[in-house]
Amino acid sequence: MDSGTLSLSDIDGPFDLEVTIESGQTYLWARADGRTYETHDGQSGDVWYWTAYNDQVIRVRQQGTRLEWEATDNVESTIVDQLGLSDDLDAIVESAPDDPLITEAVESYPGLRIVRDPFFPCLISFICSTQMRVPRIFKMQQSLRKAYGDPINLDGRTYRTFPKPSQLAGATETELRALGLGYRAPYVRQTAEMVASGRLTKDIILGQDYETARETLTEFIGVGPKVADCVLLFSLGYLQAVPLDTWIRTAIEEYYPGCSKNSYAETSRALRSRFGGEFAGYVQTYVFHHLRTQS
DNA sequence: ATCCAGGATGTAT
DNA sequence: ATACATCATGGA
């Protein structure tokens, strides 16, 4: 086991571990206290969160300006990357458009950062997210770990890694339905096969501009434009991506009716521009979380 | 019981 | 290209 502490006073802008992990942008971190996802008890200062993938377990907890970690290896750079700690959040917030909804959303959740989940787990989790409530999406990912992941030990406790592409490709549709995936079961299996085959990789997508990358991602089964945007934003660092989900579409109707166009691509362009362009995905995530926690 | 959830796919036009 | 029905599951 390895461990260490990251000083959060060295990064640009604030950081809040709880709101970052529990704002519905990642379904790959779990609270070590076993409490339900989205508890929002505001007392997560002592709560460890864990994630596991690629034979690696990571535990983190925040205490003020200290981010403690324990892991199977030295994961400092991984944590900095996955939790968006190298983003200049002060500059991003400063550059956000100045309208009432955005300002209120951004000011309500200081330290909310965009995560960079590992590609395959992010892809699978958002394929599972369609027509599904947030807490259940999280439970589905935990079920996939239990059924297909590898047990891995850290400091006397056993965790399960998120399954690798080959592990999920070997699942049957019947098995996946038994885990409660419903009609998403064949999507998950087929997409896992595609990733395992290596004919469409993360690096190919990363070499493409934003809109091309979104089109390419929809080649995966069960991935439409919205899920593609989520993967681009929450895994691949396309911070201009604005996933158009039901919450954001409602916000468009109420606050930005002019952005409502006849296609996903056009509406996306309009809202992306309205949300400031380069970091529109950040704005989208603040607004999404704000709308969801207000009602 | 009926409705709905961070939508995508298949089919018909 | 665009419109529409259909797709499981569990919680309210």
What does this structure look like?
The protein is α+β, with helices and mostly antiparallel strands and 295 residues long. The protein is 46% helix and 12% strand. The chain contains 15 helices and seven strands. It has helices at 17-21, 76-82, 89-95, 100-108, 119-127, 134-148, 165-169, 173-178, 185-197, 202-206, 210-217, 225-234, 246-255, 264-274, 280-294; strands spanning 2-7, 30-31, 49-53, 56-63, 66-71, 151-154, 157-160. The strands form two sheets. It has a five-stranded antiparallel β-sheet with strand order 1-5-4-3-2, with no helix packed on it. The protein has a two-stranded antiparallel sheet with strand order 6-7. Helix 11 (210-217) crosses helix 12. It is globular. It starts with a strand and ends with a helix. The model has no long low-confidence stretch (mean pLDDT 96). It binds a DNA duplex (13 and 12 nucleotides) through residues 24-25, 126-127, 129-137, 177, 180-185, 187, 218, 221-227, 230, 243-248, 262-263, 288, 292.
